[in-house]
Design brief:
This is KTSC domain-containing protein. It comes from Paenibacillus allorhizoplanae. By secondary structure, the protein is α+β, with helices and mostly antiparallel strands. Strand 1 and strand 2 form a beta hairpin. The chain has two helices and four strands; from the N terminus they run E-E-E-E-H-H.
Amino acid sequence: MNMIPSVSRQIAFVQYDDQSSSMTVQYHTGFRASYTNVKQDEYLLLFTSANRYDSLMRLTESRYMEENISTK
């Protein structure tokens, strides 16, 4: 399991589980969001990004869009 600490003022950390290909975003408010089917390459892009917050928002937005399309 890998973790990126302190992504932004709103996000405490992002955690990735390569066994289940899932990612968890922990907010400073206590809210926790989980995303499934996240490829390790996508997570590694977050890890190496100069702007982790923007990269995380792009990734989570694409996951949100995929979920809403697949549930309709």
